[in-house]
Amino acid sequence: MQVSSLNEVKIYSLSCGKSLPEVNIRRRIELIQDFEMPTVCTTIKVSKDGQCILATGTYKPRVRCYDTYQLSLKFERCLDSEVVTFETLSDDYSKIVFLHNDRYIEFHSQSGFYYKTRIPKFGRDFSYHYPSCDLYFVGASDFTFTFPLKQMLKLSPLSLYCFRENNVCDINSVHGLFATGTIEGRVECWDPRTRGRVGVLDCALSSVTADSEINSLPTISALKFNGALTMAVGTSTGQVLLYDLRSDKPLLVKDHQYGLPIKSVHFQDSLDLILSADSRIIKMWNKNSGKIFTSLEPEHDLNDVCLYPNSGMLLTANEAPKMGIYYVPVLGPAPRWCSFLDNLTEELEENPERLTHLIGSPFLRAYMHGFFMDIRLYHKVKLMVNPFAYEEYRKDKIRQKIEETRAQRVQLKKLPKVNKELALKLIEEEEEKQKSTWKKKVKSLPNILTDDRFKVMFENPDFQVDEESEEFRLLNPLVSKIKGKELLLNYFYFQEEEEEPEGKPSDAESSESSDDEKDWVAEVRKQRRLLQQEEKVKRQEQLREDQQTVLKPQFYEIKAGEEFRSFKDSATKQNKTLEDRLKLEAKNGTLSVSDTTVGSKQLTFTLKKSEQQKKQQEAEKLHRQERKAVRRSAGHLRSRPRRGRPFH
């Protein structure tokens, strides 16, 4: 089942079963079995009771009758020549009249062939007048031949003034007015009771508008009455004219824009629609405004279109063996004999079909972790799964055009809630990079704002940059002047500068730095002095507050089973914060805090020595002092002159 859509009106094709793969035989929907002709189908009609569908085609010329209750072929009869058109005289298939292209008229009954006669000229169309049981034939002559079925005799023809040929005819079912369409582009209306003409409409002149391009004289190719006063006329140049019989001017002129003759015209009263068809397309449009409701373009050329009564089903005779069956739920419900279509279409809308049933068939060829598919089958399946793909594509294009026009306007920059200053600075840098890449055609690097790894930095308040902090104030000169890779290089450079080697003064290295680095170092030192002054002021204020505070006695509770030693031991047992412990370590001399060149903090911890280590160090120190004293005394003795006995 193939689905198409226009103006949000879904059309289901129920006759594409032969084009589907054989592996899908159980899923294929074949509404009527063998609903086809050997070569071409020329005409198709539905009996008045709706039980039979009759179609004629070639080759060989034949008529087929399908029973809708059995959903299969009821009978098939071969004919001597091709059928131009036919009509059912009864409510079922028991009385059928065929007009052949060799001037013969053939009557069939329920059992088969019944009677055959011939008219003087080649016929093109005929109509049946129910009150008088007369058949009116029009064709390649200036006469309309009547055939009274009661007497089975040929009467005198109705003279059609001076016009030579007629293409179509129709009889109004309300008041019995008989109308014919000529090759001169006129419509003549006759009264069968008086056998005289009552009016003429010049449709060829009315079909020519300012927008239409006509290369030949329009002829009448289709004619249809609706009610007592409405008539639709189709021309050979692709126009449909809607008339009120009380006026000689058309109410509406609808152009198919293809320049092809109109094949058939039908009225759909529930929605006030007119269905007009040429060999390429079926258009459904509003008869009051002319606005297109939807359209249907089959794969093959059309020969005839039939609207199933009181339903949303269309039957088409095509230039192909397969006859078309289309279901449009908006036009009406499914016929009684195929009411399951309503439930089926609803299920298809809720559960879109997949292609798992094609695995293993020639239509899908396995390749690695997927399949190769023919591009034509892919487009068909995509249309079935998403019939509104074109509408979505059109909306996307319109949205892109609107966004392009909006880009030319003044745009406000949307900043995140966290680190707005940093985000603004990154946006400005990105714009500068884009301008440079446009000029130099250099590949741009990804932005931090669009990188998911740094997304939390602009969403979580814990990552908010404190501009009043000591680290920010020391790093701010560096960030404002050094970007990208220079930031990392200078960072490691200043880190190594703190650990300067022995024998090389810092002035020698500073003399080798650039002027920008000197300015930056001066700015960092200035900020460091300001921070030291602020820290000094804070300590003085804290000292004043400590002097003003009155100390209160603290009471300690000794747990049962513990022995009291000193207040120092009890105080150390209490839980302290990291800040308090760091202050205590700094006071004891085991921790030293220093500032680095780039503004960060450096902590140095020294291990606390035990009493035994202290005694050992004192003993070693005393031993070294004793040895030094011994060396000094020994040196003093060597430097003193020796005194001996006098030489005799």
UniProtKB/TrEMBL annotation:
Domain NUC153: 451-477
SUPFAM superfamilies: WD40 repeat-like
GO cellular component: 90S preribosome; small-subunit processome
Keyword check for Repeat: yes
Stretches assigned to the Nucleolar protein 10-like second domain: 355-386
Acidic residues biased stretches: 509-518
Positions of the UniProt region annotated as Disordered: 498-519, 607-648
Family to which the UniProt record says this protein belongs: Belongs to the WD repeat NOL10/ENP2 family.
Identification of the protein by name: Nucleolar protein 10
Organism in which the protein naturally occurs: Capra hircus (Goat)
Keyword Nucleus: yes
GO BP, one annotated term: maturation of SSU-rRNA from tricistronic rRNA transcript (SSU-rRNA, 5.8S rRNA, LSU-rRNA)
Record domain Nucleolar protein 10-like N-terminal: where: 1-351
InterPro entries: Beta-prop_NOL10_N, NOL10/Enp2, NOL10_2nd, NUC153, WD40/YVTN_repeat-like_dom_sf, WD40_repeat_dom_sf, WD40_rpt
Main location per the UniProt record: nucleus
Subcellular location: Nucleus, Nucleolus
